[in-house]
UniProtKB/TrEMBL annotation:
Domain of life: Bacteria
Origin organism lineage: Bacteria, Bacillati, Actinomycetota, Actinomycetes, Micrococcales
Protein name: HTH tetR-type domain-containing protein
Residues annotated as domain HTH tetR-type: 1-55
Organism encoding this protein: Agreia bicolorata
The keyword Transcription appears for this protein: no
A Pfam match: TetR_N
DNA-binding region(s), chain positions: 18-37
InterPro entries: DNA-bd_HTH_TetR-type_CS (IPR023772), Homeodomain-like_sf (IPR009057), HTH_TetR (IPR001647)
Length: 190
C-alpha cells in the first residue's frame, strides 16, 4: 500500500487521489487501510513511528553497553537492519523522494518525525550508557548518526541505478572516524 500511495502522490499529489481509489488499486477495504494508517500522509511515509521506536529501543537496550566508541556501531547496525527490512526497488525510493518533492508538507512532517526520533534516541543512548539525557556524548553520538543518515539519504537520492544503503552508510561512518581520529592542534585565539 505504501509503494502505491507514494507512486500516486508522486504522479498526482495528495489531493489527486482518494483513499478509496488507493484501496481499490491495492485491493483492500477502506477498513483495512485504517487498520494500518490514519491518513494518506501516513501511508506515503509508510511507517508506524510508535511501533518502530519501541522495536528499535528494545533491540538497542538488549545490547550490552560496551562503552562510547561502540555505541554508534550498535545504532548503525540496527538502523541498517531497519532500513534493510524496508528496502524497496529503486522506483519505490524514487517515488518516495518525488512525493516529498511534490508535497512539501510531507517533507515537513518527515523532518518533524526525524527531530522527535533524534530526541528519543538521545534519551535512549543516555539511558543505556547511564548518563543524563543532556550528556554531550549521548547528543554527539545521535547527531553524528543522523548526519550520516542525511548524507547517505542524499547520496541514495542522487545516485542513478541500484545502490547499497548499508555500504554508503558504513563508508560515511569510516570517513567520519578517519577525519576525527587525528586531531589537529588548535591555535589559541587572542
Amino acid at each position: 500500500m505504501t509503494s502505491v500511495s507514494r507512486r500516486l502522490t508522486a504522479q498526482k499529489g495528495l489531493a489527486g487521489f482518494t483513499i478509496e481509489e488507493l484501496c481499490d488499486e491495492v485491493g483492500v477495504s477502506r477498513r483495512t487501510f485504517f487498520n494500518y494508517f490514519r491518513t494518506k500522509e501516513d501511508a506515503v511515509i509508510g511507517a508506524d513511528p510508535e511501533a518502530d521506536s519501541q522495536v528499535f529501543a528494545g533491540q538497542f537496550m538488549a545490547r550490552e553497553s560496551r562503552g562510547w566508541p561502540v555505541v554508534i556501531d550498535d545504532l548503525l547496525e540496527l538502523v541498517i537492519q531497519h532500513f534493510g527490512a524496508l528496502e524497496g526497488t529503486v522506483h519505490e525510493h524514487a517515488d518516495f523522494f518525488a512525493a516529498l518533492d511534490r508535497e512539501p508538507r510531507l517533507l515537513q512532517r518527515f523532518i518533524g518525525m526525524s527531530k522527535e526520533r533524534e530526541r528519543q534516541m538521545t534519551a535512549l543512548v543516555a539511558e543505556r550508557e547511564s548518563v543524563p539525557a543532556d550528556d554531550p556524548r549521548a547528543q554527539a553520538v545521535v547527531h553524528i548518526l543522523f548526519g550520516l543518515l542525511r548524507s547517505a539519504g542524499d547520496r541514495v537520492h542522487t545516485l542513478a541505478g541500484p545502490h547499497d544503503f548499508a555500504s554508503i552508510l558504513t563508508d560515511s561512518l569510516s570517513a567520519a572516524r578517519l577525519v576525527m581520529a587525528d586531531p589537529t592542534p588548535r591555535k589559541a585565539h587572542p
